[in-house]
Automatic annotation (TrEMBL):
InterPro entries: Beta-barrel_SelB, EF-Tu_GTPase, EFTu-like_2, Elong_fac_SelB-wing-hlx_typ-2, P-loop_NTPase, SelB_WHD4, Small_GTP-bd, T_Tr_GTP-bd_dom. The lineage of its organism: Bacteria, Bacillati, Bacillota, Bacilli, Bacillales. The gene is selB. Its main location: cytoplasm. This is Selenocysteine-specific elongation factor. It comes from Guptibacillus hwajinpoensis. It comes from the Bacteria.
Amino acid sequence: MLVSDDSRLAGECMNYFTIGLAGHIDHGKTTLTGALTGIDTDRLKEEKERNISIEPGFAPFRLSEEMTVSIIDVPGHERFIRQMIAGVAGIDLVIPVVAADEGVMPQTREHLEILSLLGIQRSIIAITKADLVDEEMLQLVYEDIVDYIEGSGFEGSEVHIVDAKSGRGLDELKESITAFLSRVPSRNRAGAFRLPIDQVFTLQGHGTIVRGTIFDGEIRDGEQVKLLPDRLEARVRQIQTHNKKVDRAFAGQRVAINLAGINKHELIRGQVIVNSNHYAVTSTIDLAFTQSLTMFHELKQRSLVTVHIGTAEVRGTIVFFDRNVLESGEREELFCQIRLHRPIAAKKGDHVIVRRPTPVETIGGGSILNVSGEKYKFGNETIEMFEQMSRGTPFERLEQLLDHELLLSKEQVMQHIGLDEEAYVQLTEESQLVLLGNYVTSENVFNMAVEAILVIIRNNHQLFPMRKGTPKAELIQEVRKRYPVKLVEAAIELKIAKGELKQTGPFLSEYSFQPYLPNSWKTRMTQVIGELAKQELNVSPIDMLIEKESIPDSLKGEFKQYLLTEHVAVSLTDELYVHKDSWEKTITDLKSGTGETFTLQEAKDILNVSRKYLVPVLEKLDESGYTIRKDRDRYWRT
């Protein structure tokens, strides 16, 4: 790939599929691929010499004007199982190949088992090398295959007899493939782009190149991408599919991507190229697990295992919650957790294969229930939690998750629930969820957060009735102990917008709330207010008036603040408060008794107060913006 300058746009009406050939060594997979496509997938020298596909070989196969497939010649030798798992990642249809002269062999069984565990059960079976046996033997092999797949996910698969050399059965096989794929839904082009890397190399004049099958979404030339789990960044310099340069590529296509801004040594097989935050990076995954029938040795709690996901291969520790030993010989379905030794990129619903490093065998496979597993208790409580995760609708699973996480970003919802963009929009439109910008919570969690906010505000109205409300920063600081800050802030803003709360300066209160004097001290506080009105400008210090009424020190500050914030009084100094009526009369008397300017003496004559009160009055006029002082004169502001 990346050798052609034939630029074109990948046809948007074209459907792209991936077909995988699997089976025992020397059963004719590569020969069949060549007969169908005219391409020899044994590219490497070692493959030519040993006739074994060490790395999966890929060949384009145009079925019709609307349908193009990539055929993957999956390796068949036992020690290349890991490449086979990587090869089937992203396959839409599998063609198990069984040689007529040997029949179903051990590796045929293991391959079918792995395919089934990966959730790939769409198959057409090909009996190859038909020229090597007579018709009676062909019939026996055919019946053996039908018997073997009975009761499995492959039951009912078409079985075709072919001979790649003579061409027998090839046209019928192609017709069957075309009919089968026409019924298979194409991959989700609208989803978040994801490409697991299975090959990394360089070409002179091009630089770093990666190959893989696009699992989801689409990618465009020139787009910025990330490489997970390492969170490296790069730019798409060029895209090719089947030796053709394209401007963009879609889910299901086999592509080579020339990356700029990154070196080959930074890339490895198993990394995932994405262009969004919709995929999680995790080191702990919870699985709905199915035991393999090809597992022949028991597996103890916390054993070392190898996990295959996409094209990644990672060691980890398996943890059971209902047993300490997984016995062999049965196909059992269970829940487990794998704590990985290094992180992977994944989302809910991704399939994994779990193998034992020694003795080497397939333990089983499953799908990811949760990409952010935690340490759970051993026992039924955890198993019941997993059962709820596996059975519930996307909304029920999200509600369960939100009961614990409280608030999730759009990307986190898509990662944890396993949704694409379209499914996320549908879920938020049809379910009782509360959308807070790019975040989402459940009505239950939102209402609990609102109630926590209202409880504090209402309690403070009772405890501190003379305040305008609760300081917003103080409220957030308190509620954030139980709920995320974004949720608290959003709940406050929504309640303000709905007219249920109001903000006055830094204070929050219920919309209808007005500060008031506490009933138990209302009479005495009213006496203080009356005394202020009576004394006009010749007031006693406010603390003296309060003490005279035996108002406790614990209420003194609150009361003084109330007098000012509710505009009952005006503070000339920290100690001198005048009643609002006296203050307004002072301004009126001065304005009517002076011209554009006046002096201190003129003000003294008009107000008839001593210098002790006059100076604070005039300074308050300056501070309040009524007057401007220049030298000995004051000018009224117009």
